[in-house]
């Protein structure tokens, strides 16, 4: 995997998807 990619944006998107998934499963 190339670290040259905008890790911040990727992590932010992954975090948002994870939080949305947890909220969807929890709620």
Question: What does the model show?
Answer:
This protein has 27 residues and is mainly α. It has one helix spanning 7-26. The radius of gyration is 12 Å and the shape is rod-shaped. The chain starts with 6 loop residues before the first helix and ends with a helix.
Fold topology:
Layout: H1 7-26
Keywords:
single chain, 27 residues, mainly alpha, 1 helix, 74% helix
Q: What is the global morphology?
A: rod-shaped
Mean of pLDDT: 84
Count of DSSP strands: 0
Number of discrete helical segments: 1
The fraction of residues assigned to DSSP E strands is under 5%
Q: What class do helices, strands and sheet pairing give?
A: mainly alpha
Main pleated-sheet profile: none
- Write down the Rg: 12 Å
Q: What is the string of helix and strand elements? A: H
State the end-to-end CA separation. 34 Å
Q: In terms of per-residue confidence, which ranges show pLDDT below 50 for 5 or more consecutive residues?
A: none
Helix content: over 70%
Question: What's the quick description here?
Answer:
The chain has one helix at 7-26.
